[in-house]
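Schema walkthrough. Field components (list of strings):
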Amino acid sequence: MAARKIMILGAIGVGKTSLANRLAFDRFETSYKATIGVDIYTTTAPVPGRPAPMPLVLWDTDGDFGLSIFRTVYLKGASGALIVGDLTRPTSLDQMAALIAGFREALPGRPCAAILNKSDLVESAAPGLTARARGADAVALASARTGQGVAAIFADLAATIERRSL
Amino acid sequence: MVAQSILLAPPAGPPPDLSSALDHLLEAGLLGLAVLDADGSVRVRNGVLSAWLPEVGGSCFESPILLGLEDDLRVQQTDAASEPITLPGICLAMSGASPRCDIAISWEATRGHHVVMTTPDQVDRPIDHWVMQQRREQRLLEEKIIAASHELERINRNLRDFTSVAAHDLRAPLRQIVAFTGILRGALGPAASPLARDCIGTIETCAGRLTRMTTGLLDYARLGSESHVFEPADLNRVVAEACRNLDLDLRGCAAELEIGALPTVIGVPILLTNLFQNLIANSIRYREPGRILRLAVRATETSPGITVQDNGIGVPAEFAQVIFQTFARLPNGRVPNGVGLGLSICRRIAELHGWRIELEHNGAPGACFRLDLASV
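Field assembly_structure (string):
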């Protein structure tokens, strides 16, 4: 099965690299280092009805790109995106919403899943918070630190890519 | 002129061999070069910086970096005006030792192949990378601090609103309790049994205390929620006003007052009166039984400030901070009238003025509160 390219987008410090590490290595690094440029990871995701998992290439992008990421070559050929927000930083959720809209406009028909990360740091998410991810194909509260919710939404995204033959 | 003469001077010796220079760059790991056929298969690759491409003969699209770029490479072959495809700042995170690279892919129409050039990323030098990361981490920290302060502001506002509403709403049933207890006392009259009189007395005492607490809470909540007009305020007049408000209590304990020459400050007169009134009421409340209360309000000599000194029971040093907290009272059990809000109101008023209030231990008997008028 051919590998698919998944973009990981989001504001600076929302945990994109931590999610990539969780997905690629199933580990969490406690120290924070801002990503400069783009880090590329390879991993797989199970797809229902397929004996072999889907090979995936994750493009963990620099949070500083903001919406200008849509004007770069990095996005070319992407089959889908994980768009990440930080539950503890409301401004990052605004940027998440803008990135969801931008991705849908740049690559129509390609699925994007919204991850409201750092759920382990909040006692309970404010009601209506998932509505901030309007336009995303799937939304999940997740924690890269504990792994809670990460694999499930990623598998969901891979299944959508497979279903749409992207 | 000197530079011109150098440029015009004939080169000494044979011209430099560029191919040897290129070999040097490839060997030094400063450059990676590869050639791709039109279908994307790797025809040749050279230099460690090209190791991200598959072996010769493999398809370049097997590399995760070029995955998804098939269409763009095809467009490059058909469009003579197309620019090189550039991928700056790419790092293969799965292979730990791979450097961050800038990649450029250009179509060479005359030879019918793509040339792929890989160079180390401009910010991959440790110091540049470190500086950029520090700047971003600082920005992130600033954003977090702003978010936290907004959240704190919201919580404080909610708390003030809650305190104000709760205190206000509690007063209505409280008034009913006081009123109906009075009616009950009147209805029972002298025929009331000692037990009934005792119960009514207890209810009235508790209701009185609760009234003072809710009034204090309302005052405290209003301090933070209302806007105040700052103006020159003569502290001599402010303290005199506070004493007038407490005239009966001061007469009741035959207090001896000494008010020194006090400065004029920029403040909210009504709040400052409240502050001094609370401090003086505190001295009255915590006076030593059997001793005439002496109270001195003076300007400090060394730095801008005011002290309020009494000869009461004083405050143990371990309670110097606690007494300014809301509902904090000295655990002496001797003074039934305080509700534990007076000094927290004083502190809040001082803070609103940018001042500080603290308990001063100067060795004299009683308590001495110092109001530091220098901005905090």
